[in-house]
Amino acid sequence: MIDEKLSIAFGEFWHVAWVLVVIIAGISILTGFVREYIPQEKFQKKLKNQNTIVGAFMGAALGTLTPFCSASMVPVAMGMIEMGAPFSTVLPFLISAPLCNFVVVGIIFGTFGWKVALIYLVWTFVGAIIAGLTVGRSRVKNQVKNLAEIAESKNKKSSESCCGEVKKESACSEGTTAATSCCQAGSAGGGTREKVESALNFALALFKQIVPYAIIGAVISGVALAFIPSSIVEKYVGNDSWYAIPLASAIGVPLYLRIEMAIPLLRTLLVKGMGMGAAVALLIGGTGASLPELAILSSMLKPKGVLAFTLTVLALAISGGFLFMFI
Fold first, then answer.
1. Angle at 67 between CA 63 and CA 70, to 5 degrees
2. Transmembrane region positions (predicted)?
């Protein structure tokens, strides 16, 4: 029995891990090249001026249009922050990308009908905007790790090392071309080769920072699938009592419900007597703040930031559950 569960856990880990690694690598490279080739000054100026409801709307809208899982949304969010976007714009993206992208809404529409899909879309979309205007503008915005500073620090050390070697040869003191080119290596400007190298260096730094958390998330996913029985869900949230909704949202966190497996599970639980409110709470909690997702988010958010994100998603799950309970 244990061997069978371990086999299931390893199979899920392998299935999730290699997909996450490939996605993270691709998105990191894309982010690096976007950072190099898109005029950053205009983009940063536009983003920095969006610490308003417009910025929160833009972040939520971007998430709705991009069916990202946690593995791909984190490097994109990091790129947004590095380009100067306020956290009040990034947070709505982090919430709407997994919860109300067009794929999720389409699956809900095909399973539960247009009314449920429309209410779900409006609730999660508005909730993401409200989160950006409240949590995103609070002191939580200071809980974001700054990858740019890490990368710049590494580049600075590399540049100082290079310049130090040149000084040993008295090149810098003589003002030679070699010293100038060396000390300016890795700085802005340069030709195509320099830009490509800079983009790949940034992508590598981004990949190295995120991928360990993705592996942790894959481990959690495998353990959850193998050792958390679905009977627990059926036992404690298979009814229409008020406590089923907050309990369902909390149970969804360790379950790691990918949308393609969440909907079949919810259909089964609804047939067995689970209330629609608890089903929605489980869906939002499991897809918006699962343990693997929180593990990956830890690569860009400090512990208090991860906690604030989790509580925000759980609040959205619980309030959405009660909404569906009474309509």
1. 80
2. 12-33, 53-78, 90-112, 118-136, 210-229, 241-257, 269-286, 306-326
Average pLDDT, the chain: 75
Q: What values do phi and psi take at 101, rounded to 5?
A: -70, 165
Model confidence at 34: pLDDT above 80? no
Q: Is the pLDDT of residue 205 over 50?
A: yes
If phi > 0 it is left, if psi is from -120 to 50 it is alpha, else beta; for residue 68 that is beta
Q: Which amino acid is at 247?
A: L
pLDDT in tens, 241-263: 778 888 888 887 766 666 655 66
Q: Which residues of 27-36 are buried (b: 16+ CB within 10 A; e: fewer)?
A: bbbbbbbebb
- Per this entry, what is the length of the chain? 327
Calpha distance 78→93 (Å, rounded): 11
> What is the 8-class DSSP label of residue 229?
-
pLDDT of residue 6 exceeding 90, the answer is: no
Give dist(CA 220, CA 293) in Å, integer. Answer: 10
Query: What amino acid is encoded at 145 in this protein?
Result: K
If you write DSSP's letter for every residue of 246-280 in order, what string do you get? HHHHHHHHHH---HHHHHHHHHHHHHTT--HHHHH
